[in-house]
Amino acid sequence: MDQELHRNEFLRVFNSLCERHPKFSVWSDFISLSAYSFSNALEFRQDREDQYLSIIKKYSKDEANKFPELLAHTTNAMDSDRHQDFLGQLYMDFGFGDKKKGEYFSPYSVAELMTSLTASEGDDNSGYVTVNDPCCGSGVMFIAMANKLIKDGKNHHFDMLAIGSDSDPCIALMCYIQLSLLGCAGYVCIRNALTEPITGKLLQPPEDAFKTPMLYHEIWATRKLLEKIRI
What we know:
There is one protein chain. α1 runs antiparallel to α5, α2 runs antiparallel to α3 and α7 crosses α8. The chain has a four-stranded mixed beta sheet, with helices on one face. β1, α8 and β2 form a beta-alpha-beta unit. It is globular and about 55 Å long. It is α/β, with parallel strands linked by helices. The mean pLDDT is 92.
């Protein structure tokens, strides 16, 4: 099965990096490097570039070249099977979940059921569905909603806006990466939604937001402009 092959290839490369570095550090660094690469390719920020450079210098040249491999295997795994939370499942399989915080990711099957029971048809005026998850984890609810739209014959690239936040930087960026790879429009913020809720107009992301590539598409850029001038 292709999905299993890509997962095994991911694990092979990942484990080779763990020979010299702590397992969670490799995972966190992979997530951060991938997220900063996506973000700065779209809208350059020096602070994120500085964080990228501070991480990558810990690794040799050969080791550094393995991080793009990990991202490629992640992309291929998600392409081979959209009905999964690839990064979230690996995170839990590795035992990275913090039991003290009650950190357990919902299985994809549960998210799929919840989406089928609670999803709305959206706002007719906006032309798209907004999914706001203030404790987004690795983004499984967004993935399930995107797949529901596809099943219903809609275009998840333009018919859904995903807005997420999580207080754990690594987990929030896992969500950002998966949304980006799935071609979903939206953004993710690293913050505690109870003390720092995302407010304001939906298509005017906060300064700290990680915006997905699809959000820069001309359709969303037009919607953003219309929302900005709308009273």
